[in-house]
Design goal:
The longest helix is centred in the last third of the chain and has 15 residues, at about 190-205. The chain has a six-stranded parallel sheet with strand order 2-1-3-4-5-6, sandwiched between helices. Helices cover about 50% and strands about 15% of the residues. Helix 1 (about 20-30) links the parallel strand 1 and strand 2. It has ten helices and six strands; from the N terminus they run E-H-E-H-E-H-E-H-E-H-E-H-H-H-H-H. By secondary structure, the chain is of the alpha/beta class.
């Protein structure tokens, strides 16, 4: 499906990114592209939602890692409150940890920040035509994720203790099973940096100081069984 000539007028775009230099650079790049008109720029998710309400843009180019309200939550609110506005995620992180929550929240496109101008225009045109605007690299990761068997989940009888998220609990279980950060990243299909973030978060919530304590903690909470049990 393609847009009609009436719909071929420049796409009105809001850019949301908390890093001023990055945000201004994207705005400058978009200003040079045909078929795109930047109507606003936001420094966080809260401001992005507000600007969408005020400006009714066609598309928001949405960073994911922002203060106050991150890109996933902002996307969810925009798609719920302003369904006429599409969201294309534009982020540094091309990993599943960011990709799938963003798509579930309603994002129709997903580009990394090294995307060229032509790629951005194609993504904007695609989502406005009702198609998905995913970069080739993201499409490959999506297909890889769908074609690979899921890792074993945390036992259904185990509850996440001390306010851990489900993903933090998964990481804790994999630590207790002896996996390295790199092994955990491969198993969960995320980056090593993402694994380190989860580990830092779960250590902070539980008061753990090292992996040995994490193993004992996982056993004590019934998240894993010692060998031979």
């Amino acid at each position: 499906m393609t847009r009609t000539e009436e719909e071929k007028k420049p796409a009105r775009v809001v850019v949301a990114d908390d890093q001023t230099v990055v945000r201004e650079g994207i705005v400058m790049l978009l200003g040079l592209l045909p078929g795109v008109e930047v109507v606003g720029a936001a420094g966080d998710g809260e401001e992005a939602v507000r600007l969408v309400g005020e400006l009714a843009p066609d598309v928001v180019l949405m960073d994911l890692r922002m203060p106050r309200c991150d890109g996933v939550e902002a996307t969810r609110r925009i798609r719920s409150q302003y369904p006429g506005t599409q969201v294309v995620v534009l982020t540094t992180f091309a990993d599943d940890e960011s990709l799938f929550p963003a798509l579930r929240a309603g994002a129709r496109g997903y580009l990394t920040k090294d995307a060229g101008g032509d790629e951005i225009v194609r993504a904007v045109e695609s989502v406005l035509s009702g198609d998905a605007g995913l970069s080739p690299s993201v499409q490959r990761r999506l297909l890889e994720r769908l074609s690979q068997p899921e890792h074993e989940p945390v036992p259904a009888t185990a509850e996440s203790p001390d306010g851990l998220t489900a993903r933090e609990t998964e990481v804790l279980v994999l630590i207790a099973e002896g996996l390295s950060n790199q092994d955990i990243a491969r198993k969960l299909h995320v980056s090593t940096a993402t694994v380190k973030t989860h580990i830092n978060n779960l250590f902070a919530k539980t008061g753990l100081k090292d992996r040995a304590q994490a193993v004992r903690y996982a056993y004590a909470k019934g998240l894993v069984w010692p060998p031979g049990k």
